Description:
By secondary structure, the protein is mainly alpha-helical. Helices cover 76% and strands 2% of the residues. A two-stranded antiparallel ribbon has the order 1-2. Helix 2 packs parallel to helix 5, helix 3 (55-86) runs antiparallel to helix 5 and helix 3 runs parallel beside helix 6 (136-160).
Amino acid sequence: xxxxxxxxxxxFEMNRFRRTLMQSAVAPVLSTSLYFIVFGSAIGSRIDxxxxxxxxxxxxxxxxxxxxxTESLTNSxxxxxxxxxxxxxxxxxxxPVSAVETVIGYVGAAATKSVLVGVLILATARIFVDYxxxxxxxxxxFLVLTCTAFSLFGFIIGIWADSFQRLQLIPxxxxxxxxxxxxxxxxxxxLPEPWDTVALFNPVLYLVSGFRWSFYGVADVSPAISLAxxxxxxxxxxxxxxxxxxxxxxxxx
Length: 253
């Protein structure tokens, strides 16, 4: 294992995060703070509780998930797309680093940035609402697994994209709507039929539900199923990345 190669890619990406701190960390925290003000305070004052939890506290796990999913996708897709756009991808492919080491470097850095942003939002949420975490280890596990899985997904998007417009297409047109409809602001028990059943086909619901369970011990679906779905999504992304490097799809053309 070429640890120096992994370290070089990882530090390069983390340095890019440091150079763009305003849009990488400050902007997501400010945006989420606005959600807390609008939904937690303005709308929350009109909703008593959801499943016995104050509405402002209820939306904390969902808002963290919404942000880390978006950040994971953006960080990793842009990280691998940039050398493609600049034409330096061939230097990376000819360097003495394997496909596994390249993925660990890029995805590891993207997941690290997203976890840091998630922790920042968690700390910021304390300013607006009072929340508890009954299973902190599971909170950390769901956070790391989700950031890793969506960083892998973003890595695939970055390789697939051949323009900046395509780079934003799936995150904006597919993932963000699914995140908003995945129980970020509500429980699916509040939905009328058949929408409560339709919601079960939204994969983001399982991430939000499992993460919320780690906070309050309540969930729309079984935490075991949430964990299995997250792990399955990560394995599927890993299999696709492996295939990409074996075939050179979109990397050598």
